[in-house]
Amino acid sequence: MSNAPLFSLDPASFAADPYPILARMRHEAPIAYVPELDATLLTRRDDIHREEKRIEVFSSRQPDGLMTRLMGENMMRKDGADHQAERRALFPALSPRTVAQHWAPVFEASARRILADLAPRGSCDLVTDYAMPVSASALIAITGLAEMSCTEMDRVSQHMIDGCANYTGDAGVEARCHAATALIDSHIDRAFASPAPMSALAVQQEAGLPMDSLRANIKLVISGGQNEPRDAIAGIAWALLTHPDQLQRIRRGQNSWQEAFAEYARWISPIGMSPRIVAREDQVGAVRFDPGDRVFLMFSSAGRDEAHFDRPEDFDITRDTAAAIPFGAGPHFCAGAAAARCLITQVALPLLFESLPGLRLTGPVPFRGWAFRGPTAMPVAW
């Protein structure tokens, strides 16, 4: 087992707000074993950026890991040639060109329809009434699971990521995750005979992927493609509404929606970490790792590393975010990054502020989570 120093934390406090604890870890124990999570956490940006790429040591393949046991062995839980083969099979559905030419008009049509229904109401919960259906509609199109409702998509994604972060072994969380994956499989079965063109289902079929890989990768796309864009859309809107001077910079053309997204993903990472398993004995600095050790690469901590970011706890869309790694930095760089950027920065945010004049917060906006983090409610009016 790793000889990393011990760092104990309260899981409830960590879920409520991980950033003060991560700041302490960067300062006191940047590589530390946390018994409550049964994992060794890497919290400094340079360590994460370097070690993530050493897949021969810090492997993504985790046959006994939560994601594999609950969702199947998807491409994110494979390394080397196996990972690249499945990534290439999925790429035609998620490439920047496909996103720009095929998906962007679909995203815009859905967002405009949702906003047209919302506008007469004068108020809503921006998480559940806008960010959720915008994200879900996009994901239904990309996956090809055309009969799934937005509510179903949001629910199965949440229950899967809850399952993948269920390090305390809650039986109810695991049961909900199993129900979610069964529902997804039923939708895959219904759509399999005539998948929508360019969908993740269609391109994997065309590539001839085995059915278990196809199913697992669809679940991966859902687990990484619903909650994170949903949370980023609502979270960025909240950040700009609570920093009106920065919203005005975007409206005046001094900064872009893309810069707001990049800064928000640095500041409050929708995906806070990536798990790895140590494949062979190795050492990082003075810390030794043994085969089988569980390691968490804390992307959320990397985004607030004082060695790279001045005033890292502040939201500032004018800063240089090049050192941030919210999508990862190695061979497992998020395959859906182009789709997420398009949906959030070209469609969801500009249309939101264009369509609902006078948009304002009307109540508190609670956040929760450390492995995945986002607002749980966002009351607004316009």
Automatic annotation (TrEMBL):
SUPFAM superfamilies noted in UniProt: Cytochrome P450
Keyword Ubl conjugation in record: no
Keywords: Heme, Iron, Metal-binding, Monooxygenase, Oxidoreductase
Gene3D superfamilies: Cytochrome P450
Keyword Acetylation attributed: no
PANTHER family: CYTOCHROME P450 YJIB-RELATED, P450, PUTATIVE (EUROFUNG)-RELATED
Official protein name in the record: Cytochrome P450
One Pfam family this sequence matches: p450
Entry's family note: Belongs to the cytochrome P450 family.
Organism of provenance: Sulfitobacter porphyrae
